[in-house]
Each structure stands twice: as structure tokens, then as C-alpha cells.
Amino acid sequence: xxxxxxxxxxxxxxxxxxxxxxxxxxxxxxxxxxxxxxxxxxxxxxxxxxxxxxxxxxxxxxxxxxxxxxxxxxxxxxxxxxxxxxxxxxxxxxxxxxxxxxxxxxxxxxxxxxxxxxxxxxxxxxxxxxxxxxxxxxxxxxxxxxxxxxxxxxxxxxxxxxxxxxxxxxxxxxxxxxxxxxxxxxxxxxxxxxxxxxxxxxxxxxxxxxxxxxxxxxxxxxxxxxxxxxxxxxxxxxxxxxxxxxxxxxxxxxxxxxxxxxxxxxxxxxxxxxxxxxxxxxxxxxxxxxxxxxxxxxxxxxxxxxxxxxxxxx
Length: 314
Prior knowledge:
single chain; mainly beta; six-stranded antiparallel sheet; elongated
């Protein structure tokens, strides 16, 4: 797996760090720049979930499953088996920028999702890696695409390493997911995608960031690789022939296409999502209107971003 250089807690002052000017007082406390080496007195502690867009499955000629979007959270287990990260410390009077990664299309990797603000270190989840096919190699990502894409540390797992016969032959393996690596193809069956991770930050349990299943060869009349939970459908199965897309707003990886499918692309990656859960004492305004603020059963509020937007808190 690739190393991740932006995990919380925040980095101490040094090369590459940023100093933030003092922002005066908030609720009786002096707000200090994080680069000062002194802990800031936060107005609010906020839980987060940041899931990136899943990659697209490999297409015509030996399509492999794509990796899921990177999965990071402070409320439960992060991707790659990592423990929960530190909560975010958000301050009144600051507007935070939310980016929701798009799923990969046309055999491309997914896009990153992030939370950014002038007083915090940006939290970024990496887009899922695309799946390999005869015309292109798999790519690394939050979770790696099959065949051979690596996941990112504390975000997701690697894609499958080989197909059923060898790295350039069908059936192909599955893409990596947030909780498991993709599985190699075997015999005439494509490999399953790696499973995702369940989160209840929204108030109900939802599984995010499952990998896409591997594709097969039409003439084999074989079964496609199954989707990782929370992710995409598998590749073409010899009778239906079409790879399935990743689930929207879960970061699922796209399934790999079969040998003679039409159109020739694999399944599209599922778009990502960003969720912030914060105390009822905190007032937030959200934009644009297609993003929402709702009530959480634990007497908290939940801001859900399915497209790029902003959250202003007071």
C-alpha cells in the first residue's frame, strides 16, 4: 500500500506545515494557529466520513474489477483496517469546503473527496483505482484496481494480483475494497471485489466502498465476479454480457467487462460522499440545496454532501 501523508492528528510545525493566524476569541478561548504547536480550543468537535469516487472497471479484452474509493472516518473503523481517526475541530465563523469525488468513467480512476478549511488540515480520501484490461494497466487508488493496483494506507486494500490464467488473461480478478483485497479469478469465474465497511454516522448502517468484480470471457459461459458489499456489480457473465456500475454515493468500484461485451467499457465507478455529524448546539448552513442537514437519533445533526458544497458554522 502507498503511504498516506495527511492523516490526523495535525502535523507539528516544520517543513511543509502551514501557520494559521490567530482568529481571536471564541466562547472565551483564544483560538491558536495549529502550526504554533499549542492545541487550539475548538468550538465544536465533529465526526466525519469521507468516501472518494470508485474507479471504472476494465473494458473489452480481459476487463478487471475496479478499486473502491478511499474510506476515512472518525466514527468507526477506517479503510484498510485502520482505527478511527481523530475528530475534526471546527470553529464558528469559518466556511468549510466539501469536495465529493466523481466515479471513474471510460476506464478511468475515481476522483478524490475532501473536507478543507482555513483552520484544519485537509482530510482527503483518494479515488479508487481503475481495473486493468488488455489496453491499459490497473491503477493505484484509495483501493487498488485489479490486476495489480495498490490501495492507500488507512483507506483501502489492493486489487487482485492475477486473472484466472495469468495477469493478462481472463477471467479477471476483483478490485480492492475498504475492508478486504480483491480476489483473483479462478477457473472460468471472475474474482469477487473486496468488501466495503459499514458506517452508522448517518443514523443508519450503510456499507460503503466495495470493490468491483472481475470480468469473464463470453465463450466460457462463466460466472462474473461478484461485487464487494457496498460496491459494484461484477463483470459480464457470458449471457448478459454487461459490467455493472458502482453504487452512487457509496464509492463502489465498477465491475470488469467481459471479453466480447458491447459497449466495450467496464462498469462506471460510484460517486463518493462526505458526511459531518455535529452537536445540536452548533448551527450550520449548507449549500447547494441538494445537500442536506438532518437529525441524528443521538441528539446531533448530520450534514450530508452528495455533490460539492460548503458548510458555514456558528
